[in-house]
Write a structure and sequence with these properties.
Helix content is 26%, strand content 22%. By secondary structure, it is of the alpha+beta class. It has a ten-stranded antiparallel β-sheet. A hairpin with a 5-residue loop joins strand 8 and strand 9. The longest helix is centred in the first third of the chain and has 24 residues. The radius of gyration is 16 Å and the shape is globular.
Length: 215
């Protein structure tokens, strides 16, 4: 799978945002022009098992993404499965604050609480209340103050998944990288996500070394 040159990851297994993709492989903790940083997350004990669990959740997302982005009829309500914690009261202000359009794609009505979609046919799906990712050594990208874990959906061309880290409930963004740049997807939804308080954050290499030095 490969994204257009403007969206291709700098190295396999290390998805990044658009601006990071224009330079060599990102160094953890380095800021980009949109205020992005790349690092690791707090609490790295048990990171391997957490990473395996997250990969299983991402694999399970492939069917949802394929159905939502490929099978939705033009003009119809987008059929989206609600997230496990979609009824969380914190999801309501997030969904109300979602932009009316993303990358010139208009917002559309969806079938489930705590969800929204963009484009006709759908190019981006947002769900609030997904499973919260645990501590992981996977790359974590900060976009305008919101930490995201970004991964390519297995066996789905140009399909990407981003999920917030350190916020409860977690918010998931599924998008077609060929129609919606990753930076646009995360910048445009990030302001709404910030209504959920941040309780954990990504760590840069410097933060990790300092933490190890005091332990």
């Amino acid at each position: 799978m490969a994204l257009p040159s403007a969206h291709r990851p700098a190295a396999a297994g290390h998805p990044t945002t658009e601006h990071a993709l224009r330079s060599p492989a990102p160094v953890a903790g380095t800021r980009g022009r949109r205020g992005e940083t790349t690092g690791r997350t707090r609490g790295q004990g048990g990171a391997a098992s957490s990473s395996r669990a997250r990969r299983r959740r991402v694999a399970g997302t492939a069917g949802l993404l394929a159905g939502a982005l490929a099978l939705t009829g033009c003009g119809a309500t987008v059929t989206v499965d609600g997230a496990p914690d979609a009824a969380n009261p914190a999801c309501a202000p997030v969904m109300l604050a979602m932009p009316g359009s993303v990358s010139d794609l208009d917002q559309r009505e969806t079938s489930s609480q705590g969800t929204t979609a963009y484009g006709d046919p759908s190019a981006m799906i947002v769900r609030c209340g997904v499973d919260e990712p645990g501590p992981t050594t996977d790359p974590c990208t900060n976009v305008n103050g919101v930490d995201w874990l970004i991964s390519e959906v297995k066996d789905q061309k140009d399909q990407w998944r981003a999920v917030t880290y350190g916020r409860s409930p977690a918010v998931e963004v599924l998008f077609d990288g060929g129609r919606v740049p990753s930076s646009t997807a995360l910048v445009d939804t990030g302001a709404a996500v910030q209504s959920i308080p941040q309780t954990h954050k990504c760590l840069s290499v410097k933060d990790t070394l300092e933490q190890q030095g005091t332990s």
